[in-house]
Description:
Layout: H1 7-16, E1 21-24, H2 31-38, E2 44-47, H3 51-65, E3 69-73, H4 78-81, H5 83-92, E4 96-102, E5 128-131, H6 140-158, E6 164-170, H7 203-214, E7 219-223, H8 230-241, E8 246-248, H9 262-265, H10 272-275, E9 279-283, H11 291-297, E10 303-307, E11 324-326, H12 330-338, H13 344-364, H14 373-383, E12 389-393, H15 397-404, E13 413-415, H16 426-433, E14 440-446, H17 447-452, E15 466-472, H18 491-495, H19 504-509, E16 513-517, H20 520-530, E17 538-543, H21 546-558
Parallel strand pairs: 1-2, 1-3, 3-4, 4-6, 5-6, 7-8, 7-9, 9-10, 10-11, 12-13, 12-14, 14-15, 15-17, 16-17
Amino acid sequence: MAFPSGLVELIDILSQHGVEQAVICPGSRNAPIMLAISRNTAIQSFSISDERSAGFFALGLALHSKKPVILCCTSGSAALNMAPAVAEAYFQEVSLIVLTADRPQEWIGQWDGQTIYQERIFGAHAKQYFSYSTQAHESSDEIWHRNRIANDAFWSAFSAPQGPVQINIPIKEPFYPEKGAVLPDSKASRKIQKWITPKSLDVATKTFIQRQISVSSKIVITVGQFPLNTAIQAAIATLMKKGIPVLADSIANLSGLAFDSHDLILANTQSWEALQPDLHIHLGKSFVTKRIKQFLRSNDKKQEWQVNPHPQALISDPFKGLQHVLEIDEVDFLNELSLLNFSEKQEAYFQTWKMADEIVATKRSTSINDWNELGIFQKIAQKLPSSNAEIHVANSLSVRYLNWINFVPKGIEVFSNRGTSGIDGCLSTAIGAAQDNSNLVISIIGDVAFHYDKNALWNSYVPNNVRIIVMNNHGGGIFRNLEGAKDLPELEGFMETQQVFHAENTAKDAGINYILVKNNHELLQSLDHFFQESDKAQLMEIETNSNLNAAALAKYMALFKG
Length: 562
């Protein structure tokens, strides 16, 4: 039959490795790949028309399942539209296997339709690149080569640090099997298994840690973006009790266990000297705000470690003082640390952080009743579910508000696309993560990010466990809070992305229940039932004034500057 060779085997091998989900973008050149995926009964397939949204939808699936997800598109600019999601997956270390259909090599650069240069199209943002032949060379070497590529692609994506890979697949016509024909059986599919041994502490590393701890009296641990991990949480709680201050972002998933008000504490620069460590230990990825980076960068006398069992090839040194990278499991490291004895001065150092945190906690507990985003986030926080829910927060102001107030209930996992920190795809990621998910999936997103990604709702996969909160200040409100930007005459015309749209029509088109809120009374009334079980997804649009938001935030931040 007329069907490109090797595609059934490719998908079969990925399936044998445990790949269970695929996102397919409609097209003609990729139709044979689509058939090989959709007719594999072990793989759940989703059809998403917008390639940019599809990429982030796949990212959400992978974040939820913790398994690689196939992402498939046709030839031409389709793959370019997936680039933002691929870059995000690379920096978040999420496994995507991107199958890009292509024209045959001889037609590249020959003005053939829907043809661009697709080899290594994602550049450094794909961990590996593979070219997969579908020529009908049924030699043993050809079969062996295709088997090897399929296995290599899976392990490249799945081996730590995880990330996206591209398999470019040139396909000649005809694309489709004859009417009524079945796809060919898989021939000689061979799964190659790797055994991955966790990296643990050896005697030399333990000795180094013990020696350095014994001569340090101001030890601080910082935790950037990190998935919810109960073993990490338990270890952090133990270290806090032993007098080690732990500073964590809202996206570190340590709510209620660590000092999460570091950005407000450090707003008072007069306190920096007393709070500076002599040993700084970092876990996880990046921080949302720059103040903690500035604080730690200003101390060139400290010793600095990074604990990362699977670092990328390039050294990450965001605090400009890195001396040791410990490639060991974070839980093993923290548990080893908790067994050690610390200097008597360490307790005094811990109390300095604790007192600063308590002062901030008193100030930020002040109820804000004026109609502005800060007060709105406070009221939403009071109504959030305490269990069986997860939060997907968009970039710009939304994720920062989570750091500025005590927003996240203990045990609720927070996700955010902080790999590249872009506004593209924030909603699509949440919709992808909501699939086959028993949790309530709460997306908190600004109006610009929402409209930029509203094709996230242009599909038939928006389940009733989704709750979307759109903070509509009719523009990019974050720029009104940035020194230098807020006073520019070009602010309104070129920086704020001013827009007059609402989300109502988008919600109606998607079959989602829509609520518009314009004051505190309507907000509290709507929040009473918004997070309850429903037969449809819910979208609440909260309309505010950007100038009033900026003024309220400036007044609030002034409380902490000392």
